[in-house]
Amino acid sequence: MNILKTTASILALTAFAAPAMADDIKIGVISVLEGAFAGPGMDGVRGAKLAVQEAGGAVGGNEIEIVTMSSDASPDSAVNAARKLIEQDEVDLIVGPLSGSEGLALRDLSKSYPDVTFLNGSSASQDTTLRDASENFFRFGGDGAQWMVGVGDYAFNDLGYESVAIVGEDYSFPYTQVLGFMAEYCEAGGRVPEKFWTPIGNKDYSSIVYSIPQDVDAIFVVLGGADAVNFLTQYAQAGGDKPIIGSSVTIDQSVLDSQGPFKDLLVGAPSGTPTVSNFEGEEWQAFVASYNEAFPDGFSAPSIFGHHYYMSTKAAMLALEEVGGDLSDGQEAFRAALTDLEFVTPTGGTMRLDENRNGIVDNFVTEVFEREDGTLGNRVVKVVRDVDQYLGMDKDEFMAMGPVSRDNPSCP
Amino acid sequence: MKNAPLLAVLLALPLFLNDFWLTQVATRALILGITALSLSFLATYLGVVSFAQAMMAGIAGYTIAYFGPNTVAIGWELPFWLSIPLALVLATLAGALTGLVARRSRGIYAIMITLAIGVAFFYLTRQNYSLFNGWTGFSGVRAPQVFGLNLRAPVPLYLMTLAVAVAALVLVAGFVRSPLGLTIQALRDAPGRVRALGIPALGPIVAAFAFSGFIAGAGGILNVWYNERISSFSVGLGPIIDILIICVIGGLRHPAGAFIGAIAFVLLETFAVDLIDRDRFNTLIGLVLLAIVMLAPNGLQGMAAALVARLRPRAATPKTSI
C-alpha cells in the first residue's frame, strides 16, 4: 500500500506542478497516437501545431498552449481524453477527434461542458452535426458524404457506368460515403443493384468476389488500407475485370504503392477526397511549404488529417484574434466569431459554416494514372467548390431521406 | 473489522478530492476493480482464467442501454428498478452459459475457449444493428434519478460504486466459505478426487461462472452509467486485456488485489501522458507493468502484504486465501 501511496502522491504532484498563467489560452488536441492510426494521428497534431505557429504562438498577448491527448480510436477513450483535458488540464478549447464514432461521442460529451468549445478534427460522421447537433461543437470540414461529391456524376456522365456494385466496410463512415456517391449517381440515372458489407479487418473476400453480378459496369470499393489491398488482390486473382471506383480512403498512396495484380484495375479509377497532397493550387503549395518547414520529419505533404486539424485550429486562431482572446461569458463572443468566420482554405476555397456549424467545403474528384516509370499516382480531375452538408439538395428533401444505414440510400 | 479505518478513509474521499480525481480516478478504478474481481475470483478459487468477463459486463451494460434512456432510438424504456435486475440476471446467465461451455477446459484451453466467446460477442455487437446498434452502439445513456438525486453526479456515483465494491468483496468472501465455494476450491486443487467422492463437478463450475457473471454484470452496469455510452469498442480485445492486466498487476492471491491493480492501472493510464513525451506514454505504461510483474510476482497486493508482514514480524501471517 505504501508504494502505491507514494506513487499516487508523486503522480499527483507532477500533475499539479505546472499551473498555467491566467491569460494563457489552452487548446486540448485529441488524436490517435497509438495503434494502427498513430501515423495519421500524429499528422493531425502537426496540423494543429502548424496553425498555432503560423499565428505566432499567441493571440492578442495571450500565449497559446497546446496539450495533446491520445485516444485509441474508440469513443470511450476519446471521451476519457476529453474529460481529462477539461477537468484536469483545464483547457478552453478542444480540437479533435480523428475518427467518426469518436466524433459522435465528443458531440454528446460537449453538451455536458457548455463552457468549452469543441472543434472537430478529421472525424467525418454525418450525424455529428446534422442530427442532434450540439451548440458548442463546430466542424470546419466536411462529412463523409461531402467527401464523395462529384464522383457519382463523373462516373455516370463522363465514364458512362450505368450500374455499380458496392463493397464496403460495415460501419457508419462507409455508409456515409455511399450516400455521397449514390445521391448524385442515382439522381443522374445510375443503379446500384447490390451492396456487400464486410466487417472491418476482413481477410477473405472470396464469397463477395464470386457474388458480384456480371452485369454491373464498375465496383465502388469503400474499403481502407489493408482491406482494400486484400479485396483488390483477391478480385484480380479471381479474374475480375470490372473498373474500380474508390472511396476517400481507398485510393491512398500506400494502396497505390502496393505490389499487386490489381494495378491494371486501378488505372483510371476515380475517387473523391477533400485533400490531394500534390494539388497544384497556389494556396496548397504555400501550405505544403509551410508544413515542410515546420516539420522536416513529417510527411512529404500534409495528409487529410493534418489538413483538417489545421483548418479547425486555424479557425480557432482567427476567431480568437477577432475577439482579442476574450473567452468570457461562456465563450459567447468567440463562438459568434466562429459562426460568422470566413477564410481561404489551403485548397483555395472559402471555408464557412452552415446553420449546424458544419463546414461548406471544397471537394476533389481525382483519378489514378500510370506514371512513365510504371508507378501509380493520383491526379485531380475536377474541383467542386461550396459543397454543403445537404449535398446541394433541398434541406427538407435531404432530411426526409433519413439516417444512412446498410440499406439507405437505395436504388436497385 | 480491521478494515474499518480504510473504509472510513474511502468514505471520506469526496471531502478531499476534486471532481476529476473522484470520478475519473477513484470511481473509474473501483468500477474496473469490480469487473476485474469477477476474473480474479474465478482465477483464484476455480483456477480458470476467463477472457469472457468483458462480455458478461457488456451484456449487463447493453441491457441497461437498451432498456434505458438513450439517444439512438433503439430498445424501449423500462423503469430502472426493472432494468437493473434484468441486466444482472442476463449477465449471470451469460456467466452460467460460459461455464457450461468451458466446464471441461483448464489452463490454456479455458483461455482459448473464453477468448473465443469474448471475441465472438464483440463481432456480434459490431454487426448486429437491431439489438446492439452495431459499430456506433448506444449513446446518451443516463444513470437514473432516485428521489431527485442524480446518480451520475460525482459524489453519488462514487459512493454507490464504493458500496457495490464492498458488497462484491463481502459476497466473494462469503461465497468461498460456503460449502459450494469449498467444493469449487476442491475442484481447483484435486478435480479427480472430488469426482471420486461422487460430487458432480458440473453444478459447482457453472455456479462459479454464474457468480462471476453476476459480479461482472454489476461492474458493467456502473461502467455504462459512468461512460454514459456503450459500443462494440467497450467489449473488444482492448477491454478484455485490460481486465487481465489489472488482475495480474494487482495480484491473484486475494480478491482485494483486483482493486489495487485497478488503481495502479487507472493512475498509469491517466497520468503517464503527463510524465513523458506524449507520443511515447505507452512505452512507460508497458515498462511499469513489466516491472510490477518482475519485481512483484504476486502482484501489488502480494507485495504490500509481504511488506506489512516484514514490518510486523510477530503478527500472524496474513491470510492469503479463503
Describe this structure in words.
The complex is a heterodimer of chains A (412) and B (322). Chain A contains 15 helices and 15 strands. Chain A has 412 residues and is α/β, with parallel strands linked by helices. Chain A folds into two domains: 203 residues, Response regulator (Rossmann fold); 158 residues, 3-Layer(aba) Sandwich (Rossmann fold), CATH 3.40.50. In chain A, the strands form three sheets. Chain A has a six-stranded mixed sheet. In chain A, strands 11, 12, 13, 14 and 15 form a five-stranded antiparallel sheet that branches. Chain B is mainly alpha-helical and 322 residues long. Chain B has one domain. Chain B is 70% helix and 2% strand. Chain B has 13 helices and four strands. The model of chain B has no long low-confidence stretch (mean pLDDT 91). The chains are: A alpha/beta (412), B mainly alpha (322). At the A-B interface, α1, β3, α3 and α4 of A face α2, α5, α11 and α13 of B. Chain A: Pfam families: Peripla_BP_6.
